[in-house]
């Protein structure tokens, strides 16, 4: 799998490394979104990008790394949205998060990568790990810092699984009336829930738990 | 596709119709759960059940009918659980529903059919229709009657999508700490949400919505 970089033609390819890397990422994103984590192959992605398969391994290490770099990055990624919203203040975080989530998704399916990841994680331990790390790491720390709460990882997962369930029902299943409910109605229903999950205390917690 | 019932061997099979029907349902349930709605074939199910494919069409009309009869039936089906719980009274419905949902699923994956349906509905209009009808019909009517609320269909869908998102994260993704959180903690977190979705009013609804 190692490239012979002394070979002229290969060396020429390596010089355009950054462009190749971007082409690989674009090809991988398309393949993963179309075929899922399991169905997409590194070989097929390399072929789509017009590079040697060895270059993919050189840049991304393995399929997991490629998945993470292509599907989990980008400024529009919803897992970054909570962090962005917290930068703008912690007030009414529930309503703001729900509004931002559905407005952005209504506007054009930019969350498709997360749905791909979500589906893939059901069958792929690697994708599962990527998803967990994305939620449990810096994001949970931000929540803990912003609201002074414990259980921040669980809180983030409650919010994420609720929003993903809603997104799945609204955009994939398209079940009515949920699919046609206005964003402001969703904010009114779900906003207080997200607010409580992120900032509320749990005095009603059972002593037996 | 029509069977010649005058043919002796076929006639012998038809006489054991009820047993054959049960065998078909069992085979279909297994196939649908393993391969999803899209992957399972009527021919393969008939083969597993040891019957002629025409018998499957005779009993169930089409693949959708077979899916509905095999995956959506049974006393343990979670979509029936809310109705059962309402038979026992409407008090603390949120906590009781969340507790019942996770206790039963923790005990042995009896909700796998619903997860299959949920996944299949993303790609199959027929499965989508089955899922919608199961939620929007009698169940929403029960909620409307029990709590005197409007928007009962939307309320049921909010609850269903929340619980399915949680179940997916807990049982399929197995993300921690959600996967190991005790049922009573889940009741404390999610119970009030379900209670509000099913019984609450929405004074905060935006006038622009």
Automatic annotation (TrEMBL), chains A, B:
Database matches in SUPFAM superfamilies: Homeodomain-like (SSF46689), Tetracyclin repressor-like, C-terminal domain (SSF48498)
The HTH tetR-type domain, residue ranges: 18-78
Recorded superkingdom: Bacteria
Binding region for DNA: 41-60
Keyword DNA-binding belongs to the record: yes
Molecular function (Gene Ontology), one example: transcription cis-regulatory region binding
Matches recorded under Pfam families: TetR_C_16, TetR_N
Keyword list, A-Z: DNA-binding
Listed name of the protein: TetR family transcriptional regulator
Organism per entry: Mycolicibacterium agri (Mycobacterium agri)
Higher taxonomy: Bacteria, Bacillati, Actinomycetota, Actinomycetes, Mycobacteriales
């Amino acid at each position: 799998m190692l490239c012979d970089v002394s070979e002229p033609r290969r060396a020429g390819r390596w010089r355009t490394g950054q462009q190749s890397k971007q082409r690989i990422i674009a090809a991988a994103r398309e393949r993963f979104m179309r075929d899922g984590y399991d169905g997409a192959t590194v070989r097929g992605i390399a072929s789509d990008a017009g590079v040697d398969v060895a270059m993919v391994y050189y840049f991304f290490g393995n399929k997991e790394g490629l998945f993470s770099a292509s599907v989990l990055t980008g400024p529009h990624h919803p897992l970054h949205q909570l962090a962005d919203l917290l930068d703008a203040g912690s007030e009414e975080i529930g309503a703001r998060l729900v509004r931002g989530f559905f407005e952005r998704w209504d506007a054009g399916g930019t969350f498709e990568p997360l749905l791909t990841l979500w589906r893939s994680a059901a069958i792929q331990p690697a994708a599962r790990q990527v998803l967990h790390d994305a939620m449990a790491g810096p994001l949970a720390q931000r929540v803990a810092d912003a609201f002074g709460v414990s259980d921040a990882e669980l809180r983030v997962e409650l919010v994420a699984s609720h929003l993903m369930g809603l997104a799945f029902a609204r955009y994939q299943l398209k079940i009515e009336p949920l699919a046609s409910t206005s964003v402001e109605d969703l904010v009114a229903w779900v906003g207080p829930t997200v607010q409580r999950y992120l900032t509320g205390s749990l005095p009603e917690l059972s002593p037996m738990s």
